[in-house]
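Weekly structure sync - notes
Attendees: PM, LS, DV (DV joined late)
Agenda: review two folding runs queued last week.

Item 1: First target. Sequence and structure tokens pasted below for the record.
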Amino acid sequence: MSDIKTLHILNKPPEHPRTQQCLEALNPGDALLLIENAVLAITMSVEAEVAVPVFALAPDVVARGLGQSPRGASASLVDFPVMVNLTASAQNVISW
């Protein structure tokens, strides 16, 4: 049995139209993983707008100068092994 119904992996920055499409597609039981430029959303409280667990890839957060634990961010920072585990525990994966 999978823990996550659908893992949404978003790599687009907050202002990209696909980001809004992704947020609108989230359903209960889903999770959101922010990677690449999508991690910039954690500084804008995007994760507060959704009712699913939000994860951000820590190396991407650090690479974009947001630090090890960005102020005001409620997303859980994860490393690559945890990202793989999230993907493996999801019934479906959608990359945005």
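Item 2: Second target, run right after the first with the same settings.
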Amino acid sequence: MSDDPLFIVMMFSLLAVVAILATGIGGFGMGGKFNAKHGNRMMRWRIIAQAVAIALILIFIALRGA
């Protein structure tokens, strides 16, 4: 399964969600100018990345019959 290209893309999308979420949470925790300027944008990107990740997971399940 780990050599399946769709699985690899799905895992990268999940890692992207985690990275965006960690950056957003870190920005909220730090506060200041970064949070004021990028806080809402980071959470919007997280939602988009999560939607892509969920779509890829559903496609993977549908195609692989798991």
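Discussion on item 2: Residues 5-63 form one domain.
Action: LS to circulate a short write-up before next sync.
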